[in-house]
Write the structure tokens for this entry.
Amino acid sequence: MCIAGGAITGFSPEAAQPKSPAGERTPQRAASRHVAAHDHLYYEGDARDCLYVVESGWVKLYRTLIDGQRQIVGFANKGSILGLESDVEHSNGCEAVTPVSVRCIPMARVTEICLNDGKLANQLLRQVGRQLGAAQAQLAAVGTQSAEQKLANFLLTICDLCDDANDGQFDMPMRRGDMAEFLGLRLETVSRKMSEFQRRGWIRMESLYHCRIVRRDILESLGEGGTADDGPILRAS
């Protein structure tokens, strides 16, 4: 799935500070931005003048189709790099799902920063590879996985990326409509399958957005190609 997170750990604000003619860092901090939930970090077609390192929060990436509808193509959270998907202009729009903080790296300085910081350059390269692999996995899943398999993989991925995940418990950052749009399913299908997972005792929804994965082993088996009929129905405790 094209869900990115937790990749960039060594980036410091000083890394993106311009140097003076003497080769020293200027005292200004690298630019940071705070984006409120449901506001945009950038739109499709905006000039790609920065890369963004997500410091906190969740965003969704989307594209507008020929018929005017929007298609969510990915989610990203803390540690993700945004703005790698295009050249001159952003080919995706980026909307905050929750309040978001990002650190900006001017495109004009990316090469210099990478030359001076091999560790960061390596992490950027690994992030590109991860995002490419995730996009390819998502393409494969669209036509081959069932609704249950898509949802199982989605829940496991979000759980693993949530900083506050504890004993399989986490707050879903996105609405079910966003989940459905990303997974290529109807909203009714997502809601029905979530209810089925809960009825079977595989997950527990303690509120509309707070989820606990009770049987990770079953969801993993399902995500790897099993069927919902293969898993037992458990009593809710």
About this structure: The chain has two domains: 3-119, 145-227. Residues 4 and 47 are 22 Å apart (CA to CA).
